[in-house]
Amino acid sequence: MIDQRQKLDRNGVGQESKDVLQVLLKLKDEADAKMPLTMIKLKALLMDMVVGGTGSTANTVEFAIAEIMHKPDVLRKLQLELDIVVGKDNIVEESHIQQLPYLYAVMKEVLRIHPAIPLLVPHCPSETCSVGGYVVPKGSCVFINVWAIQRDASIWKNPTEFRPERFLDNKWDYSGNDLNYFPFGSGRRICAGIAMAERMFMYSLASLIHSFDWKLLEGETLDLTEKFGIALKKKMPLVAIPIPRLSNPTLYESCSICRFSLLYDELWKWVPFEIDSKLSISKRNHYLLSSLLVKVLSKTIVMC
Ligand code: HEM
């Protein structure tokens, strides 16, 4: 990708649209004397963004849609907030995101109940230290079970219930200062992509919830079971049908994030056979699979 972009730039193609890669390559070429951005650093930065930033956010959006479908009341409140701030004759823009407190509470609640990296990343103390009366020897491999902490009944009322309202008073934030709620970790190794995760999550979820109602395939039930690993995923990928709800169908063509019409052919190449076979060809235009969609969208945002 980098070679291709450099070749295009050398030939004077693509000068108009400045994407992240072009900006980074320009910084590299300018060779700032104090803080040079070498090709190795540039590649490491892009790798961090792709490896750390795509799956975690996509899985969180997928859990969010599943929880929202499970709680129609939350969906109604979200859509009401979006209809007031964005309007049904408009599509979500990045500028709306700061005006959506209920959506923000939904994001915090999803990150509480389904933290994307449930044991954080392994930490290793450089000196022997004592935590809560326990000695942690220098060089130990420490896993912190943030998943269990964020479901601790002595801290959280009805901890297994998905209830975004608990975050509406802004008492909790995820800056890492409160060790009862820290889905992005804490301290010097706290997630480097919080600002990007916030924007990607809020923008994708706002667009998906504002533009569509969601329902399950005929005869399917919603499964919220988690699958543990370094990353927390849904055990069964979410399969859901989006039903357009905006006032004007042309809005779906102009949406910069969705670009449903462009992504559409790509998506259908990914659809597993057994799901594909449930749908008649004529109905295809009305069905998209949200889990695939969310994953593609999250990747699209990072790559744009
Ligand atoms: C919902 C989305 C995300 C969640 C829940 C999340 C969570 C985390 C967690 C728990 C850690 C380990 C922190 C610790 O052990 O104390 C981490 C590290 C990291 N994250 Fe994220 N992350 C998300 C999205 C992103 C995005 C979008 C990016 C980049 C664009 C990113 C880049 C990183 C990097 C580079 C680290 C390593 C930081 C270091 O070790 O110094 N993350 N993330």
UniProtKB/TrEMBL annotation:
Pfam families (UniProt xref): p450
SUPFAM superfamilies with a match to the protein in the record: Cytochrome P450
Keyword field contains Heme: yes
PROSITE patterns assigned: CYTOCHROME_P450
Binding positions for heme per the UniProt entry: 191
Domain of life: Eukaryota
GO molecular function, one term: monooxygenase activity
InterPro entries the record matches: Cyt_P450 (IPR001128), Cyt_P450_CS (IPR017972), Cyt_P450_E_grp-I (IPR002401), Cyt_P450_sf (IPR036396)
Coiled coil: none
Record keywords, A-Z: Heme, Iron, Metal-binding, Monooxygenase, Oxidoreductase
The protein's required cofactors: heme
Similarity field: Belongs to the cytochrome P450 family.
Name of this protein: Cytochrome P450
Organism: Solanum commersonii
